[in-house]
Amino acid sequence: MTPGQPCRFSTPAKINLFLRIQRKRADGYHDLLLDYIPVSLFDQIELQPCNSNSLELTGNLAGLSVDDNLIIKAIRLLEWEIGQPISLRIHLQKNIPTGAGLGGGSGNAAGTLVVLNRLLHLSLSDHRLKQMAIQLGADVPFFISPQPSLACGIGEQLTPLPDFDPLPLLLVYPGFPISTAEAYRICLISGENAPLHQYTMDEICRLKPEMNDFWGPLTIHYPALEKCRMTLMENKASASGLSGSGSTIFGVFETREIRDRAAASLKNHSSWQIFPCETLASYRYPLDKQSA
Question: N or C end of the chain, less CB within 10 A?
Fold first, then answer.
């Protein structure tokens, strides 16, 4: 990593087409059965070496906290791993809504670990990076090498899913976050099995919102979630549901053209943010060519 030269990279969001809560554990966590699907909605991160012997964080969000941000926590964890300080100016351009069930912060943390491992020539394996990542959050290991995966445990036990064609998506952020802690406080513990296996459009069309165990309890508290879902279905989504613990509602469409017409019809909604995107077969954190 050349002194003074910035490195830029992007980190993806994820959706969960289903999420089954198996049981509450003695340690307070929940055992889950869910899928993780990376999608083409990205945050951008710029890292610039500096001589200040500190970490400086700026971005396009008000109230960015050096103490609480997952990028900073990831770098601190890496410092502990290698036994030496890392001095950086970090700029975070957030495009993925926060508190939205899209894993934006988790992707930021994992991407930072992967990119710094490469730039600093640390030669840490993906396995070791995932061991570190679980200390930052249950979603973070998935983002070390994002690809469609079935997950169990608290979300850290990952099995790659069979390849499937890209799914055109429309993500609707309804204008408010949902706290993960709140969602787990009221969740349904169904113990159900995975409802998807082949990820064909025929299977996708059979998805029901109740295949996410957060859906029922959260819609009682947040009726706007059902309004978002119904609006997507009325605009010819093949399936629609809640991503993770919310608040984003996804719509899966048969073609990009149908998806784009739906996006155009919803773009002027006063409080919703609309994100056309699609599923990714994998993602490997390409670096800006000027800094690679």
Answer: C
CATH number at residue 79: 3.30.230.10
- In this predicted model, what pLDDT tens digit does every residue of 190-216 receive, in sequence order? 999 999 988 999 999 999 999 999 999
What interhelical angle do 104-119 and 126-133 show, nearest 10? 140
- Residues known to be catalytic: 14, 139
Vertex 15: Cα angle to 203 and 75 (nearest 5)? 150
**Could you identify the residue written with the tokens 């959050």?**
137
Same domain, residue pair 81 and 200: no
195 assigned to some structural domain: yes
What's the domain range around 108? 7-160
**Count of positions (residues) in the chain:** 292
SS3 170: strand
The residue from 144, 160, 176 where one domain ends is: 160
Over residues 164-178, the pLDDT tens digits come to 999 999 999 999 999
